[in-house]
């Protein structure tokens, strides 16, 4: 494994807050600093926001487009239901939470609450990272049968694509704060700058004092009259008794555990929650006559699905997991609330849309996929230390493919997304095949290898018109990995070569653009039946829904034989690994969701200053999760993870 240590951070501090040095060495080590850096000052406020976004032209040149100042574009739609909160984290990843948009709904805090900023250098990981969701013709046809007016939809007939983008035009907010939260799940008090639990001297923006606060575990003033309704601990004894009653039918579905069997303790050192939906009042109005009870031509593309979500977020102060923030989305199909009749969906896609900043010059990140640990790592370039004029491999007949920088390395640390649960699978299913586990069930239908995330695409501000804002069909194709939908009537020859290579990242390249749809493919990995080139052994059997069809992983970084080495600066095939500043997608699907049914996603987001501490961090997250969050201890990574020699560019991580 490559090892490097974080250097000093970016820019100056925001006006509010001061530096601190108390226990700096111990704190620095816990955050993931090397000994040489552990005594350095840590940021107690995020650094000044970046004021421009880079737009890469087809010829490779970059234009800097000014951004609106944070807070100037704040939207007051559904203001009574929009609320924010703070983790008060002491770990590497800091900031707050909002009940709209997704994990990072405000461009670099947006003057409201800084989210996902790095304590080691003060920089923001993202411009934004909202939720993304898509459905295709199957969902459309079912809605059409119940509500013929859906045919009046704007955009690509038969497709809907929900995304969140407020950093750049067009301002798009498809998943927002659900109606009816004010006074019901939070009290309605606002932020303050008075040193009380309503204050946040580290992450609050200039508009904090005017923002309604979500109910926070550590702040009774924010609770409604019924009390705090946050995520409760489910005792291990409850899980075990449920398992023992019927091992083969057992599932890790916490929403099915009655409140009477849950603990009176709330999960996390800090926790909070909110409700979101794709049919909140203002969004229903935008869909016009597509939605029953509304009139007028639709102002936005696509159609609502009637998806309601409870989003819980929590953080632990325990050293082994203090660098992580856990986000759980409990999703319910409430299509009858929109269309008057219940509608079953058979193929939905859901995930996040990260726009990378990584806290410094160069608005990008390099992704690395670790399938056994269900984790994606993101860094700056040259973590391999091998970047030259010939490494990574260059695409033939182009100048495309060099490292963005040879000097960045681990200067902005390592950010990670660990997908612990999705409709595709649950990392705890691994326990069914461990003889020492109290959940050992070798014949369980969900035993063995499982994936939680299977789709990831690269994007950038200069390419939004090729997918997100081109059409709902292109957005659907981006989340589903369906090339014909992504292209939406185009051929590869309609793209500039550099644009095509960035968006598709082909594993094989002849030197010229494909001329047919059949030749235009995203790289894909089918573990079942594939031999691991490192071990000479098969990867195993991977079939998340047990339908007899082998799983396909279509993610930047993976190819026919597996996924490129972590920190290698490459994707499969040895070419460059890069994701841009707006509009990338990380998602799971397809998955069904019948009317009134529930499904769930759980993702741990984390940041540390170097690769060694990130490994320890992921061990802590996985150990915590597999141990039901009970006193997480150091835990060995699952077999195969982080096992490669960084820099080869063609070895594989599972």
Structure in words:
By secondary structure, the chain is α+β, with helices and mostly antiparallel strands. The protein has one domain (24-231, 266-626). It is built from 9 helices and 24 strands. The strands form 6 sheets. Strands 10, 11, 12, 13, 15, 16, 17, 18 and 24 form a 9-stranded antiparallel sheet that branches. A 6-stranded mixed sheet has the order 7-6-14-23-19-20. Strands 3-4-5 form a 3-stranded antiparallel sheet, with no helix packed on it. A hairpin with a 2-residue loop joins strand 17 (414-422) and strand 18 (425-426). The chain is globular and about 65 Å long. The model is unreliable at 1-27, 34-40, 631-636 and 639-654 (pLDDT under 50).
Brief overview, please?
Helices cover 12% and strands 20% of the residues. By secondary structure, the chain is an alpha+beta fold. A hairpin with a 6-residue loop joins strand 8 and strand 9.
What's the helix and strand layout?
Elements: H1 24-31, E1 52-56, E2 62-66, E3 84-86, E4 93-98, E5 115-118, E6 126-135, H2 137-146, E7 160-162, E8 164-165, E9 172-173, E10 176-177, H3 236-245, E11 270-277, H4 281-286, E12 307-315, E13 324-333, H5 336-339, E14 345-356, E15 366-370, E16 375-379, E17 414-422, E18 425-426, E19 455-457, H6 472-480, H7 483-487, H8 497-504, E20 554-555, E21 558-559, E22 562-563, E23 585-593, E24 598-608, H9 611-626
Parallel strand pairs: 19-20
Antiparallel strand pairs: 1-2, 3-4, 4-5, 6-7, 6-14, 8-9, 10-11, 11-12, 12-13, 13-24, 14-23, 15-16, 16-17, 17-18, 17-24, 19-23, 21-22
């Amino acid at each position: 494994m490559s090892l490097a240590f974080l250097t000093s951070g970016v820019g100056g501090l925001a006006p509010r807050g001061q530096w601190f040095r108390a226990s700096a060495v111990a704190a620095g080590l816990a955050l993931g600093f090397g000994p040489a850096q552990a005594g350095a000052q840590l940021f107690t406020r995020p650094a000044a926001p970046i004021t421009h976004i880079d737009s890469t032209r087809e010829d490779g040149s970059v234009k800097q487009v000014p951004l609106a100042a944070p807070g100037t574009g704040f939207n007051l739609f559904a203001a009574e239901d929009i609320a924010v909160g703070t983790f008060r984290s002491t770990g590497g990843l800091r900031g707050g939470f909002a009940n709209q948009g997704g994990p990072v709904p405000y461009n670099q805090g947006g003057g409201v609450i800084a989210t996902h900023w790095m304590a080691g250098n003060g920089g923001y990981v993202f411009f934004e990272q909202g939720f993304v969701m898509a459905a295709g013709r199957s969902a459309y046809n079912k809605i059409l049968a119940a509500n013929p007016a859906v045919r009046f939809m704007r955009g690509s007939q038969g497709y809907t694509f929900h995304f969140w983008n407020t950093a750049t035009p067009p301002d798009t907010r498809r998943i927002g704060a659900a109606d009816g939260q004010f006074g019901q799940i939070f009290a309605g008090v606002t932020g303050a700058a008075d040193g009380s639990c309503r204050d946040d001297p580290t992450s609050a923006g200039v508009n904090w004092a005017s923002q309604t606060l979500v109910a926070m575990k550590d702040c009774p003033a924010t609770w409604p009259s019924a009390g705090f309704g946050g995520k409760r601990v489910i005792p291990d004894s409850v899980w075990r008794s449920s398992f023992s009653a019927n091992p083969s039918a057992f599932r890790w579905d916490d929403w099915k555990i009655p409140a009477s069997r849950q603990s009176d303790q709330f999960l996390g050192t800090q926790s909070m929650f909110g409700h979101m939906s794709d049919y909140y009042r203002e969004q229903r109005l935008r869909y016009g006559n597509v939605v029953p009870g509304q009139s007028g031509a639709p102002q936005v593309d696509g159609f609502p699905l009637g998806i309601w979500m409870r989003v819980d977020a929590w953080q632990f102060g325990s050293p082994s997991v203090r660098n992580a923030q856990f986000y759980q989305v409990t999703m319910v199909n409430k299509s009858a609330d929109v269309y008057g009749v219940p509608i079953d969906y058979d193929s939905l896609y859901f995930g996040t849309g990260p726009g990378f900043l990584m806290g410094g010059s160069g608005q990008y990140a390099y992704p690395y996929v670790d399938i056994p640990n269900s984790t994606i790592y993101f860094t700056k370039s040259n973590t391999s230390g091998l970047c030259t004029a010939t490494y990574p491999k260059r695409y033939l007949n182009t100048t495309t493919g060099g490292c963005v920088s040879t000097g960045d390395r681990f200067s902005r640390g390592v950010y990670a997304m660990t997908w612990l649960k999705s409709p595709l699978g649950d990392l705890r299913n691994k326990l069914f095949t461990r003889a020492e586990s109290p959940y050992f069930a070798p014949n369980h239908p969900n035993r063995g290898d499982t994936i939680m995330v299977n789709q990831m695409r690269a994007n950038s501000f200069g390419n939004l018109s090729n997918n997100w804002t081109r059409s709902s069909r292109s957005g659907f194709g981006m989340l589903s990995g369906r090339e014909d939908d992504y292209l939406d009537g185009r051929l590869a020859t309609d793209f500039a070569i550099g644009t095509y290579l960035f968006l598709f990242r082909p594993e094989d390249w002849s030197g010229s653009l494909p001329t047919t749809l059949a030749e235009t493919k995203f790289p894909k990995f089918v573990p079942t039946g594939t031999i691991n080139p490192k071990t000479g052994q098969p990867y195993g059997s991977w079939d998340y829904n047990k339908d007899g069809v082998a799983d396909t992983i279509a993610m930047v970084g993976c190819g026919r034989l597996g996924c490129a080495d972590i920190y290698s600066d490459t994707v499969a095939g040895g070419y460059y690994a890069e994701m841009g500043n707006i509009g990338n997608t990380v998602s799971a699907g397809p998955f069904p969701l019948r009317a009134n049914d529930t499904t769930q996603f759980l993702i741990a987001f984390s940041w540390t200053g170097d690769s060694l501490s990130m490994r320890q961090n992921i061990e802590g997250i996985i150990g915590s999760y597999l141990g039901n969050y009970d006193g997480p201890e150091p835990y060995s990574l699952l077999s195969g993870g982080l096992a490669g020699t960084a820099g080869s560019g063609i070895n594989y991580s599972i």
